[in-house]
Amino acid sequence: MQDEALIVIDVQNDFCPGGALAVENGDQVVPVINGLIERFDHVVLTQDWHPAGHSSFASEHAGKEPFGTVTMPYGEQTLWPDHCIQGSKGAAFHPDLDWNKAELVVRKGFRKTIDSYSAFFENDHTTPTGLGGYLNERGISKLTMAGLATDFCVAYSALDAAKLGFSVTVVMEGCRAIDLGGSLAAMTEKMRGAGVVLV
Ligand code: VGL
Ligand code: ZN
User: Fold this and answer.
1) Which of 18, 97, 125, 167 has the most Cβ atoms closer than 10 angstroms to its Cβ?
2) What is the pLDDT of residue 1?
3) Which ligand is nearest to the CA of 151?
């Protein structure tokens, strides 16, 4: 369908087993997503793409550990192990992901002082990535999403897409979660409440 796109979120080595911010069974999404890629006419990928020393890294905050939080000018920010450094093997897509067909790769988190979970807006919820305009301009109004991690980049992307007026489906079998302090249940509830269809 010409008005639909598959948005594949952050299927990168660092979010898979052995990676710097490994999501449990993260690699299991790859065959599911490869099947989805075959079925869609339009495929967009996102790629978490941080400069070294990114402000979301716990290593940049004295006395802080990964998975703690800090207050940034734009609000509370969870701290992560160093991950998805621009050009590193960890930032590359999983080697088995069949992504040749992708029409666009949206990189995010490339500004040192602000993180970006969502494919649409940085974590200040106002700086756009350009993806919303790109999809609108191409007449794409229905989005299907899958990838890593369910409760962070997938959920933030789905919520922003719904807010922008896209109809959004998340294929849960093609997602795996970090699940920090109940974040999976909380974000699943938020997605449902926003009218995101979870299948
Ligand atoms: C992600 C934490 C930090 C994600 C990215 O892709 O869900 N999570 N950077
Ligand atoms: Zn990141």
Assistant:
1) 97
2) 84
3) 1
The catalytic residue among 14, 27, 48, 153 is 153
The strand ranges marked E within the chain are 4-9, 43-48, 69-72, 75-78, 104-108, 142-148, 167-176, 197-198
Pair 44, 113: CB distance under 8 Å: no
Name which residue sits closest to atom 4 of ligand 1, judged by CA. Answer: 153
Q: For the segment 118-138, what is each residue's pLDDT rounded down to a tens digit? A: 999 999 999 999 999 999 999
How many Å lie between the centroid of ligand 1 and the Cα of residue 21? Answer: 8
In order of 27, 155, 166, 182, the CA distances from 194 in angstroms are 28, 11, 11, 19
Measured between alpha carbons, how far is 54 from 116 in angstroms, rounded to an integer? Answer: 11
- Does residue 10 line the site of ligand 1, with CB under 6 A? yes
| Per-residue model confidence as pLDDT tens digits over 70-85 | 999 999 999 999 999 9
Q: Which residues pair with 169 in a beta bridge?
A: 144, 197
Q: Mean per-residue pLDDT for 99-105?
A: 98
